[in-house]
Amino acid sequence: MILLKNVTKYYNTTNGKNYILKNVTMMLPRKNIGILGRNGAGKSTLLRMLGQIEFPTEGSIYSSCSFSWPLGLGGGFIPNMSAKDNVKFVCRVHNKNEEETRQIVKDVREFCEIGEYFDMPMRTYSSGMKSRVGFGLSLSFDFDYLLIDESLSVGDTRFKDKAKEALENKVNKCNVLMVSHSESMLKSMCDIGLLVHEGQLFYFDDIEDALKEYRKIIKKAA
Amino acid sequence: MKKQKGWQKQKTVLDALFLRELKARFTSGQAGLFWTFFQPFFMVFLFVTMHVIMHGSDTNSNSAIEYGIFIALSFTSFFLFRDLLTKSSGAFRANKALFIYRQVKPIDTLIARLMVESFIMGVVILGFVILAVYFDLISPPKNLIMVTLGYLWLTIFGFGIGLIIAVANTFYDVVGKIVGFLNLPLLFLSALFYSIESIAKTNPEAAQMLLYNPIVHFMEMIHGFYFYDLDDRYVDYNYMALWTATTLFIGLWLYINLERKIVSTS
Predict the structure, then answer these.
(1) Does any domain span residue B131?
(2) Of A59, A192, B54, B164, whose CB neighbour count within 10 A is largest?
(3) φ and ψ at residue A142, rounded to 5 degrees
(4) Using CA atoms, how far apart are residues B180 and A218, in angstroms rounded to an integer?
(5) H/E stretch holding B243
């Protein structure tokens, strides 16, 4: 359960305040949630606020659940370190002991299938390789909510299938909060939908309805 | 997942960051690391050689040893302070990718760098002690506790200034460049190669001017408590405390107010 209470978020731009959310109060049930919206509507900002690395300008967000870090396009890694060292670091930060860390390193190495690149600095990686590591890593931790920000859209077909399968297994144990432009992904993973549009947050009990409304907005803009 | 509270969580993060920073220092560019350790020894060697050449006839081996220790104290403490400042300035920028893990607070990256710099300088000082023992150049300090206190106090002062620089550099990257620029004049104006006493004898006004530089007081304190024929008569402890408290206060105030902004700009 997530409670948003009078949440307002804006960014200062050259043309004044750009509102992402305007006084939104909402209770979100513990289900798999898909977040929709046009580019720049504030989907990622909403995800980052739930991950507590971005903060509402006014109001607050309450939840007793644990959230993963927002899993984006290969963020969260130090480019001069290898994937192995980065994974070790994240394990240490999350207070894993030596043995758990070794297991996670092994799991991620197997999952991401990037061969000897795993021991090379991550600045040499392509964005697809980075998101493979990031995705594999996040699956190794237990959170109540997995925050996923488009990170599955870069992989090749084989990896996408593998990631989807792994995610479906994971969803038995945790919930996802997902930003995606892929309708099939949203339909297969999410139960309910949120639509971010012009400072408003719309809630839909069924992801299908959210997608329908989203298509309407896109059409209107075109 | 095991839930940790407050300082325990921070300790976990600091341990992880310390190991990361240390590893980064040891693996990226062997030349840089070599220079970090070698520079103080090289400087001492250079200055002692110059001292011997300049004072040619009237030097005895004792004065060269004393001078060597004087310079070693100067450079270990000054380089520690300098490295704290320069490494602090990039701490938030270099680690911003890690702020997506909400446990990692920007100030942790700064403390981790402070720990790494102190550790490296600790190793260098140990190197000097081993050299001194090996070549039988021992001249024990007058008051080891006060000398150590001087180093520790300088580290805290460095942290205060480093915090201000780190915050400012996150928003204006010119700050880091200015800090790099100030290193050279500070090298000459911080009583590293001379004592204030020796300046005051010939030019009391210049000595007064130099005493406005807080680092001079730290140097005088460290030198004064090491050598039997020097003392801390020019050290103004209130002045040092004022600088330390003010910079810490400003640094922490800036940081507390801007922490969220620093995290979000990542």
Answers:
(1) yes
(2) B164
(3) -105, 110
(4) 51
(5) helix B237-264
Work out the average pLDDT over A82-96. Answer: 93
- pLDDT, tens only, A166-221: 888 888 889 999 998 888 888 888 999 999 998 899 999 999 999 999 999 888 87
* CA B33/CA B40 separation, integer angstroms: 12
Q: Could you report the per-residue pLDDT of A190-200, keeping only the tens digit for each?
A: 999 999 998 89
Residue matched to tokens 């996408």: A160
3-state DSSP call for residue B137?
Answer: coil
Judge whether A80 is closer than 8 Å to chain B, CB to CB: yes
Report the complex ipTM: 0.85
Say if the Cβ atoms of A80 and B2 lie within 8 Å: no
User: CB within 8 A of B5, min separation 6: which ones?
Assistant: none
Report the DSSP beta bridge partners of residue A33: A177, A192
* Residue B1 counted as domain residue: no
Domain of residue B11, residue span:
6-264
Q: Do A54 and B2 touch (CB under 8 A)?
A: no
Tokens 């620093």 -> residue:
B262
Look up the pTM and report it.
0.88
Domain count for chain B, please give it.
Answer: 1
Q: Does residue B150 have a pLDDT over 90?
A: yes
Residue A52: its chain B contacts at CB < 8 A? 102
Q: Is A172 exposed, middle or buried (0-12, 13-18, 19+ CB in 10 A)?
A: exposed
Strand partners, A67: A145
Closest Cα in chain B, distance from residue A137 (Å): 13
Measured CA to CA, the distance from residue A12 to residue A19 in angstroms comes to: 9
**CA A84/CA A81 separation, integer angstroms:** 8
Q: Evaluate whether residue B112 is within a structural domain.
A: yes
DSSP string, chain A: -EEEEEEEEEEEETTEEEEEEEEEEEEE-SS-EEEEE-TTSSHHHHHHHHTTSS--SEEEEEESS-BPPPB-SS-S--TTSBHHHHHHHHHHHTT--HHHHHHHHHHHHHHH--GGGGGSBGGGS-HHHHHHHHHHHHHTS--SEEEEESGGGSS-HHHHHHHHHHHHHHTTTSEEEEE-S-HHHHHHH-SEEEEEETTEEEEESSHHHHHHHHHHHHHHH-
